[in-house]
Write a structure and sequence with these properties.
single chain; 83 residues; two-stranded parallel ribbon
């Protein structure tokens, strides 16, 4: 999305807004992209890894049919996504 906005040449400054997990994702993107003009963060998590682990761990108890995923797979997936 950011590449597309920049390619249009219609946008001069880009700020990201995120709530909860989206706020944490915005922080991750900003750490890789110093050209962002700003961030608006509503209730970001201190640790995206901790939240992901908690969600995955509790899923089999709260979502019928949800698989049990080992924590090391969650951590590996987060590292791949964070790139």
């Amino acid at each position: 999305m950011l590449d597309h906005l920049r390619a249009t040449k219609l946008v001069t400054a880009i700020a990201l807004w995120g709530r909860s997990m989206g706020a944490s994702s915005s922080v991750l993107q900003a750490s890789r992209d110093p050209s962002l003009a700003g961030l608006v963060l509503d209730s970001p998590f201190a640790s995206l890894e901790q939240v992901a682990l908690e969600l995955v761990t509790s899923a089999p108890e709260t979502v019928p049919g949800a698989p049990s995923i080992p924590p090391f797979l969650v951590k590996t997936a987060l590292r791949v996504v964070a790139g």
